[in-house]
Specification:
The chain has a single domain, classed as Spore Coat Polysaccharide Biosynthesis Protein SpsA, Chain A (Alpha-Beta Complex). The chain has 8 helices and 16 strands. The strands form 4 sheets. The chain has a 7-stranded mixed sheet with strand order 3-2-1-4-7-6-10. Strand 6 and strand 7 form a beta hairpin. The longest helix is centred in the N-terminal third of the chain and has 20 residues.
């Protein structure tokens, strides 16, 4: 059984179209879902589009009522980044999707995803760079139940004394988790560091207390290929002009891994950052 593909995007961004067309070039038969609003009209002809308000359920409303911003980033930005996991979970349950690949709208795909994602069949889920699900393989939809329940407990003061239970194992109370997470946030703030509590914070916490044998690292190198987590991060790869030094072979992107001393093929490239989106047009391989 293959993986459905899920995007979440708000706004009329041309790079979303570039990403979708690149994905469809290598995966013409995949089911692609786009949750969002105000997207380019053409995008709706290429995917199954769902307005995000259709997917706001009771748990989503509780999160929205209790959300507080513990980040130097814009509150609405952080709120929607966390909310999307409730919406994706709700959509998957509505559409009877059990396995899916989730990617940010600034990602370019250069592989048959079903073939490459088989490498993670023994994992319940695989994240990018330890804490990010912006490029993620989910093989068990209950992972998102775990995530949403954890987020709800963090923001809802009435649940402070309850324990977070993961498959019958009693964990710390939500108040204990909140104190640990907020201490890390305030420590960053006191030292003038940007960022703070975000959706990746909760993925990181969940990963620390979940069964490690069931969680994969999708940005690792497996059988000579990898999923890039950020084209501007060195990650032991050849680096030039502020980004990985990508070379092309037979229409596919490669870069030399300096630790392995070999060329590694990239299944995806992630153009993270405001000024990186304009580069995507230069990296498309479809006509």
């Amino acid at each position: 059984m293959g993986h459905d593909i899920v995007y979440f995007h708000i706004g009329d961004s041309n790079y979303l179209l570039t990403s979708i067309k690149q994905l469809k070039y290598f995966n013409p038969s995949s089911n692609i879902y786009l949750i969002g609003r105000d997207v380019p009209p053409e995008a709706k002809t290429l995917v199954k589009f769902i307005d995000y308000e259709e997917l706001i359920g009771e748990q989503s409303k509780i999160f929205l009522q209790n959300f507080a911003n513990y980040s130097t980033n814009d509150a609405n930005f952080e709120k929607i980044c966390i909310l999307r996991w409730f919406l994706i979970r709700n959509m998957c349950k509505r559409e009877n999707i059990e396995r899916f690949f989730c990617l940010d709208s600034d990602v370019m795909v250069y592989c048959d995803l079903d073939s490459e994602l088989k490498k993670f069949d023994s994992n319940r889920y695989a994240l990018t760079h330890w804490t990010s699900a912006g490029i993620a393989c989910i093989n068990d939809i209950s992972v998102l139940d775990d995530y949403c329940n954890f987020v709800i407990g963090f923001y809802d003061d009435s649940l402070s004394e309850q324990h977070f239970v993961l498959r019958e194992d009693k964990k710390k109370t939500f108040e204990h988790f909140r104190d640990d997470i907020l201490y890390a946030h305030f420590n960053r703030s006191n030292n003038g560091l940007p960022g703070g509590v975000c959706d990746m914070t909760f993925w990181g916490e969940l990963r620390k207390i979940d069964a490690p044998t069931m969680i994969g690292e999708i940005s690792g190198v497996f059988d000579g290929t990898t999923f890039d987590h950020n084209i501007h991060s060195k990650d032991f790869f050849d680096y030039k002009n502020g980004m990985k030094n990508i070379v092309w072979k037979d229409g596919l992107p490669y870069c030399k891994n300096l630790f392995l001393n070999e060329m590694v093929r990239f299944n995806i490239l992630h153009f993270q950052g405001y000024h990186s989106k304009r580069l995507m047009e230069n990296f498309k391989t479809y006509k």
